[in-house]
Amino acid sequence: MNETYWKQWYRKFKYRKPSDFAKFCVKRIPKGSTILDIGCGNMRDTLFFAKNKLKTIGVDIIDPGIELYKKNKYIYFHNFDAVDFIGSIPDNYFRCPVVYARFFLHAVERKKMVEFIAYCSAQNLSIYAEARSDRDTEIKKDRSHKRNLVNANALLKLLIHYGYRIEYFEEGKRLAKWKGEDPVIIRFIANG
Questions:
Q1: CA-wise closest residue to 15 among 187, 157, 179
Q2: H helices of 54-136, where?
Q3: What 3-state class would DSSP assign to 59?
Q4: Under 8 Å between Cβ of 132 and 187
Q5: Torsion (CA) 9, 85, 192, 40 in degrees, nearest 10
Q6: At CB < 8 A and 24+ separation, what contacts does 138-147 make?
Q7: DSSP single-letter state for residue 174
Q8: CA-to-CA distance for 101 and 35, rounded, in angstroms?
C-alpha cells in the first residue's frame, strides 16, 4: 500500500457525502448490526452509517482526524494497516456481523484478498464490498497508484468456495460515478 499517496489524497480530499455504495448498503444491513469498515479512508461512509445509528468501527492506516469520531457514540476508529488485518484487528471486532470493504479488495494483492475472504468466512461474517473490475480499460491506464483489478468470475468462484451465499452480485458501470469517471465496478453482498 502506498501510504504517502493516501496521506496526500486525504489531506486534500474533504468530501463528506456518503458513497452511492454506502447508500445502497444501509438499506440492506440488518438493523442493530455493527459494521467493520476496512480501509475506511476519510470515514465518509463510516460517518453515514453512524448517522443511521449503526455502530461502525473504521480501520485505516491513515488517521482521518480524531474530531470525526469523538463526536458520535456510534463511531470508533483504529489506526493500523488494514492490508495486514489478520492478526492486527482485535478478535472482538470480528463479532461485528458485517464487514464493509469499499475499494479495499483492489487495493491489496490477490493473496491478501483470498486471506481476507477466507478469514471473514471462518468468522461467519457478511461482506459488503465494491471493487474495481479488470474489465475497466480506462483505469488500467492510470498509473498514479497501484490497483489490483479484480476479475468478477474469479471473485464469485472464490466467495462460493469459502461457503458464502451470494445475496447480490453485479459488475458494470454507473455504480460508482465520480466527477468525470464511470469505472467498471464489482459490487456484492455475500453472507456467511
A1: 179
A2: 66-70, 110-122
A3: strand
A4: no
A5: -20
A6: 138/181, 138/183, 139/183, 139/184, 144/5, 145/2, 145/5, 146/2, 147/106, 147/107
A7: S
A8: 10
Model pLDDT for residues 143-183, shown as the tens digit of each residue: 555 678 899 999 999 999 999 999 999 999 999 887 788 88
Please give the Cα distance from 108 to 136 (Å, whole number): 17
* Domain residue limits at 26: 3-191
Q: What is the C-alpha separation between 101 and 75, in angstroms, rounded?
A: 16
Give the largest CA-CA distance in the chain.
Answer: 42
How many residues would you count in the chain? 192
Query: pTM of the prediction?
Result: 0.85
Q: What's the DSSP call for residue 178? A: B
Coil, strand or helix: which one is 160?
helix
Which residue carries 454506502 as its cell? 22
- Beta strand residue intervals within 19-176, DSSP E: 34-38, 55-60, 75-79, 98-102, 126-132, 165-172
Residue of 32 and 158 predicted with greater confidence: 158
**What is the phi-psi region of residue 100: left when phi exceeds 0, alpha when psi lies from -120 to 50, beta otherwise?**
beta
Domain count, the chain: 1
The CATH number of whichever domain residue 7 belongs to comes to 3.40.50.150
